[in-house]
Write a structure and sequence with these properties.
The structure holds two protein chains of two kinds.
Chain A lengths: L17 E3 L1 H4 L1 H12 L5 E5 L8 E7 L2 E7 L5 E5 L14 E3 L3 E2 L6 E2 L5 E3 L27 E5 L2 E5 L7 H16 L4 E11 L3 H8 L2 H4 L5 H4 L8 E6 L6 E6 L40 E6 L3 E6 L2 E11 L2 E11 L4 H10 L11 H13 L7 E3 L10 E2 L6 H14 L4
Antiparallel strand pairs in A: 1-19, 2-11, 3-4, 3-6, 4-5, 7-8, 8-9, 10-11, 12-18, 13-14, 13-20, 14-15, 15-16, 16-17, 17-18
Chain B lengths: L8 H17 L16 E3 L2 H5 L7 E3 L2 H14 L5 E5 L5 E4 L12 E4 L4 E5 L3 H12 L1
Antiparallel strand pairs in B: 1-2, 3-6, 4-5
Classes of the chains: A alpha+beta, B alpha+beta.
Chain lengths: ~425, ~140
């Protein structure tokens, strides 16, 4: 951890409504985030229980830059260890998914059980009494680094922190409620997408919780009346503001705001030749047609009509981020719902009618902010506060909330 | 375009594929849906999804209308990094068809061919130059 109190940044005195662009470009800030955010007192999404159903199932994941393995043990528990041999540091599992009874390093064949205990060291006793490990070598002191792991509604989160509160308390009541709502029945993974975005990870996490851009950048939303700011909806934040849900109710659309204005996004003469891609059906009676939820620092879960997915961000460099999409449905889906989810997959992901633009704009920002260490973004829609906003989505309060949580962890109070 | 003299399926498929990549590389996208039947099956997915028998990918169109909608949306609705394509077609393999749930049961043959596209952002002059020199060589 940090040896010194070296000040990497002085935050603007305006607080959460200004963000210095240096946080998206400075390699020193990026390195410190790995310690203070991803390896700090946060819960990071690792994967779904549904991805590791059988004993020995393994999924390769990440917490920030750190490679992590998510595993199902022989007795059915969920474990996570750093994917790094305790001998020389090689990856222990190089596949995205595997099924193993133990983890054996390819380099010198040190092997570990799925609890991370060191079980085998080849030539530990040397050959013919010569060589080998010193008598003092104790395998118990050379196990794999283990993460604290907790699951919630089939989502698996891990943390390096011994201090962070239990997962459900970290999520808070409002966040837990929407996760329960979306994951109220057994799920089935339907497909994966991985994309590299040419921008900082925080630009994407800002984007995923920002209702201001959603119906302006994504012309597909208002053009087909799938999501408009004049529909009933809102923003739900946890008390710090680091987690957020933006939701809308399509049945409550009212005229105004978009029509007759100069928004590129309301294209009145564009119609789909085959509208089956936006055909959908209600799955709940709460009227919520769209809910996109971000959990700090690396996780998003969405219900966009009948499209369901979780998203995980993995920072690769200050200006490069990988985004993993896991599209899912429910195990009990009938043929009609399966067909609907399949066509609605066209809305999301790297080539999605809606989501393609998020990856693009992250890259546009990263290029736009290059070359100036002093400029900052302006986040003032809806005022200066960080608070749940029922009924009003013409606000950036959820984006300010992200920065409130981030600054607290990074020591950027000023 | 069909080789009516020989009715050689290889020639017909070669012509179809050549027209296909020209539509995209020359930005005549509006002509691209005409190369499909209606209904059709156009899917872009990943090797991982195919290997793991997962049905969802990146793009899936099952009618000519859906293909046209993709083009119209790219022209008028969606925002993305402007780019151009240059496809390089691999050798064509024609094999006896083994029907699967996801393929046309009536087709007597299946074809396999790689179409790796080189995508060039129009903002990237260095990449565009590389393409120009490749064309010249």
């Amino acid at each position: 951890m940090l040896e010194t109190d070296e000040r990497l940044l002085t935050w603007p005195e305006e607080g959460n409504r200004r963000v210095p662009y240096a946080v998206f470009t400075d390699p020193a800030i990026y390195a410190r985030e790995n310690d203070l955010v991803f390896r700090g007192p946060t819960w990071n999404f690792l994967g779904l229980e549904a991805e590791i159903p059988k004993p020995g199932d393994i999924k390769s994941s990440n917490v920030g830059a750190t490679p992590v393995l998510l595993m199902r043990t022989a007795d059915g528990r969920v474990n996570a260890v750093v994917n790094r041999c305790s001998h020389k540091g090689s990856l222990l599992c190089i596949e995205p998914f595997a099924n193993r009874t133990n983890l054996t390093c390819v380099y010198h064949a040190w092997s570990f059980d799925l609890d991370g205990n060191l079980r085998g060291v080849p030539f530990r006793n040397g050959i013919g009494g010569k060589g080998g490990m010193p008598a003092a070598f104790d395998p118990a002191g050379h196990g794999l680094e283990r993460l604290r792991v907790e699951t919630f509604c089939g989502l698996v989160f891990g943390t390096f922190s011994a201090e962070v509160e239990p997962l459900e308390a970290y999520l808070g009541e409002a966040m837990a409620a929407n996760i329960r709502r979306v994951l109220d029945r057994p799920i089935e993974v339907l497909g994966y997408q991985h994309q590299v975005m040419h921008g900082n990870w925080k630009l994407y996490m800002e984007n995923a919780r920002d209702p201001y851009h959603a119906t302006i950048l994504h012309a597909f939303y208002p053009t087909f009346k799938l999501n408009k700011l004049n529909m009933d909806g809102g923003l739900v934040l946890d008390p710090i503001g680091r987690h957020a849900i933006t939701y809308s109710k399509s049945a409550t659309d009212t005229a105004g705001a978009y029509e007759g204005g100069d928004l590129r996004s309301m294209i009145s003469d564009f119609g789909l030749a085959d509208p089956s891609v936006i055909a959908w059906k209600w799955e709940r009676d709460d009227g919520i047609s769209l809910a996109v939820q971000s959990i700090f620092p690396n996780f998003v879960i969405h219900q966009i009509y009948n499209s369901l997915a979780v998203r995980q961000i993995i920072p690769l460099a200050p200006d490069k981020t990988e985004l993993h999409w896991t599209l899912f449905g429910y195990a009990g889906d009938d043929d009609e719902l399966r067909a609907i989810r399949r066509l609605q997959a066209n809305l999301v992901g790297s080539a999605g009618y809606i989501s393609m633009e998020d990856g693009a704009v992250v890259g546009f920002i990263q290029r736009g902010i290059s070359g100036d260490d002093t400029a900052e973004s302006v986040i003032e829609l809806g005022g200066y506060d960080v608070a749940t906003s029922e009924g009003v989505r013409a606000t950036e309060t959820s984006v300010r909330g992200f920065w409130n949580g981030y600054r607290g962890l990074m020591g950027f109070d000023r | 375009m069909i080789d009516v003299v020989t009715r050689d399926p290889r020639r017909i498929i070669e012509d179809l594929h050549a027209r296909y990549v020209r539509c995209i590389d020359d930005d005549r996208l509006e002509a691209w849906p005409d190369l499909f039947t209606d209904p059709c099956r156009y899917q872009i997915t990943t090797r991982e999804n195919v290997t793991r028998h997962l049905p969802l990918g990146l793009i899936e169109c099952t009618t000519s209308g859906m293909l046209r909608d993709r083009i119209e949306a790219l022209r008028r609705v969606n925002v993305y990094e402007p780019h151009t394509y240059s496809h390089h077609i691999s050798s064509l393999e024609i094999t006896p068809h083994v029907p699967t749930t996801s393929s046309c049961a009536r087709c007597p043959r299946a074809t396999r061919r790689s179409f790796p596209p080189v995508s060039t952002p129009t903002s990237s002059r260095s990449t565009a130059l590389r393409r120009a020199s490749a064309n010249a060589s």
